[in-house]
Each structure stands twice: as C-alpha cells, then as structure tokens.
Amino acid sequence: MVKLRPKQCGRKQRTYRIVAIESQSRQEGKVIKEVEFYNPRREETQLDILAITTLCGSGVKLTETVCNIFRRATFKIT
Domain 2-77: which topology? Predict the structure, then answer.
C-alpha cells in the first residue's frame, strides 16, 4: 500500500517533504513522488494540488500527520 507521509530533510533545522512512499519501506526509502514541502519553523507549506488529487484518486492513503499538516496549512499552490 502506498501512503503520503513526511520525510525528514536537514539535520539541525528540520524541514519535511511529504512524499508518496510504499508503507512497508523505511522512512528514508525510495520515493515514488514528492508532492509537498513543509517547514514547521516558519509554518510554510508548498503543495502540488494536482499531484495530490491524482494520487488520492489512485488509492493512496494519508497518514494522520499529513492530514494534520493539510488542516493547518496556509496553501501555496506550486
């Protein structure tokens, strides 16, 4: 099963990329598609709405963390 989940980037100042990844693979595993960038320090979110809708239409599940990020986001469409 494929899920949208956060992938950590950076060591000291954490940022996250929301990626479509196989649920059985490890956190830093092979990414199928990258759909979002999230910076919790600046509350900055950049989304690719078209990619998210096509992935969700094809059966990709959202993790609870990603759902919370979507709810809090001030959307910048890329």
Answer: S16 Ribosomal Protein; Chain: A; (3.30.1320)
Domain boundaries, the chain: 2-77
Q: What is the largest CA-CA distance in the chain?
A: 36
Look up residue 58 and give its DSSP letter.
T
Residue 38: closest CA among 63, 61, 57, 58 = 63
Q: What is the pLDDT of residues 14-70, one digit of tens each?
A: 888 888 888 777 766 778 888 888 888 887 888 888 888 888 888 889 888 888 888
Distance CA 5, CA 78 (A): 19
Q: How many CB atoms lie within 10 A of CB 21?
A: 23
What CA–CA distance (Å, rounded) separates 72 from 41?
Answer: 13
**pLDDT-derived band of residue 74, with 50, 70 and 90 as boundaries?**
low
